[in-house]
Amino acid sequence: MNNLHSFLIVMVVALVTALIRFLPFLLFKSTTPKAVLYLGKVLPPTIMAMLVVYCLKGVSFINAPHGIPEIIAVLLVVLLHKLWHNTLISIAVPTAVYMLLIQLVF
Amino acid sequence: MSLTIYAGSMQYAAINLLTSGASLIATALMTLFINIRHIFYAVTMLNEYKDVKAKPYLIFSLTDETFSLVCSPNLPSEIDKKKYFFLVSLFNQIYWVVGSALGSILGNIVPFDTTGIDFAMTALFVVIFTEQWEKAKNHTPAIIGVVCSVVSLLIFGADDFLIPAMISITLVLFASRKWLEGKSDE
């Protein structure tokens, strides 16, 4: 494995990633079609849902610990956020609880 | 990698590509499949990023986390939205680069076991999802997102569910356009 090849790999990944992000902006430069504008309005909640599922995709409900630490931690995030609407608390506390749960309890 | 690629999951995958000396074509294809969801972020921000000066940088730095912070800002009126976009994008990348650098230097020195700390990302997305849910008049898009993602996950498995999820989400959103258009104004 030589250094030039490694460098090229990183460059290809960077290029393709940037292309993916820029593509819609290049395709729809002047006026954005109404259909695309509609997508822009309704996509955010669907994407956040997809991302949450993506983060939890490795969780198995059949094998121990049956996703219990994840369920507890996610419920805690929602609960804390509804109580105090403080992003820092809503992220830090459940993360700490989750780490304790999977390291010590389960 | 954190400066040029700036995409967490892809950077982890790139490690495998680098150690196995993958071909450039295989690399390009893998990147396309892993990062294709970023196309959704760009589509969403098309209108918002229209007249912003630093547009190229904003587009370049659209990662999962940056997107989740700019897609539904609901800022107090005194704050300039464009400055917010730019600073959030910039700081996010700065933190990412600094974090990657510190991690590689100090990774072996940390005294406690950090297993599970990546739950922080899950927590962030859940927080934003919760906030969007509270503010939304119409919960249908969120529900569509959950159902399509979970069904895709069950059918295609953890490694391959993102693309089917994205396709099914897009199809369902267009199919329900009559009901959703005009109702989802936040």
Notes on the protein architecture:
Chain A has helices at 3-27, 34-55, 68-84, 87-105. Chain A is mainly α and 106 residues long. In chain A, helix 3 (68-84) packs antiparallel against helix 4. The relative contact order of chain A is 0.07. Chain B is mainly alpha-helical. Chain B has helices spanning 8-20, 24-35, 38-45, 55-60, 64-70, 81-106, 119-135, 140-156, 162-175, 177-180. In chain B, 31% of the residues are buried.
Question: Which properties best describe this structure?
Answer:
heterodimer; A: mainly alpha; 4 helices; 78% helix; extended; B: 186 residues; mainly alpha
Query: Beta-strand level of the residues of chain B, as a percent range?
Result: under 5%
List how many beta strands of chain A DSSP finds. 0
Helical proportion of chain A, percent range? over 70%
- Chain oligomer state: heterodimer
Q: Name the structural class of chain A.
A: mainly alpha
Largest sheet of chain B: none
The largest contact between protein chains, plus residue counts on each side, is: A-B, 65 and 88 residues
Please tell me what the overall shape of chain B is.
globular
What is the number of helices of chain B? 10
Q: What is the topology?
A:
The complex is a heterodimer of chains A (106) and B (186).
Chain A: H1 3-27, H2 34-55, H3 68-84, H4 87-105
Chain B: H1 8-20, H2 24-35, H3 38-45, H4 55-60, H5 64-70, H6 81-106, H7 119-135, H8 140-156, H9 162-175, H10 177-180
Précis, in short:
The complex is a heterodimer of chains A (106) and B (186). Chain A is 78% helix and 0% strand. With 106 residues, chain A is mainly alpha-helical.
